[in-house]
Amino acid sequence: AKQQVIWLENYPIAVIDGSGAAANIGYIEPDHLGTPRVIIDAKRNVATWRWPLTGEAFGADAPEEDPDGDGERYEFDLRFPGQRYDRHTGLHYNYFRDYEPQTGRYVQSDPIGLSGGINTYAYVKGDPISFVDPLGLEGVGHWNNGSMDNVANGGEAFREMYETSRQWRTWGHQTFPGERNSAMRHCAVSCVLSVKLGSGVARAAGVTNEAQGLAMHDIPNLRSRIRGESPWACQASDLADNERGFRVGNSLSSGLSDSQLTQSCMQGCAGN
Fold this sequence. Notes:
Elements: E1 3-8, E2 11-17, E3 24-30, E4 36-41, E5 47-50, E6 84-85, E7 92-94, E8 97-100, E9 105-106, H1 154-175, H2 182-197, H3 199-218, H4 222-226, H5 236-251, H6 258-270
Antiparallel strand pairs: 1-2, 2-3, 3-4, 4-5, 6-7, 7-8, 8-9
């Protein structure tokens, strides 16, 4: 059945099952970090799903899917902020990586390397009560009893990263339009993003961008692509050009203005 979650900033507060007159609303009670802990049926005022905060700290305990004992299981797959339970693998999809709650670790090494900590498989530095990792890159935010100011703002961080990527990709298309400028565009944009976001995040974003191109543009136009009537959106050469940009970005000094950064990236890509 169709399920839609309603958010208040970074906190899930309600879930709608179904649509139209048959839709059913459940009220979500999240904890201090934004993890859903209880869902209350709005009509019957009883809990239909529970994932208690008092359970295993790293999320190894399975949620209670029939706490009201009516014989009907209620499935809800949100877990820690940024995570969604995969019923086929038993892992939590965490955008850039997959999280294994039974071990409290990621199953892939951190794509940003040691920037996220010396243990590249660890989840939030071993402190899931205080930190969250909405992107699967690095634990952020700290909970304390005195203030909400430092609670992790994972959704906002993701939006800022996405907006930065979108802004500079738009700049790339405006500055280097068309397929003939593709190599320079990919190199220059990747150079800028590696400085703005770090090469690990920029590399992951580049791979995601190519995957989106495959799904959104290549597959729907597969016949045209195979016949050579239109260029492929997903190309291995694009990833190679991205890597050139990362190398240029890593060679630049810090503290450059946007105009200095773009000029340095374009000059570096032209000579690389």
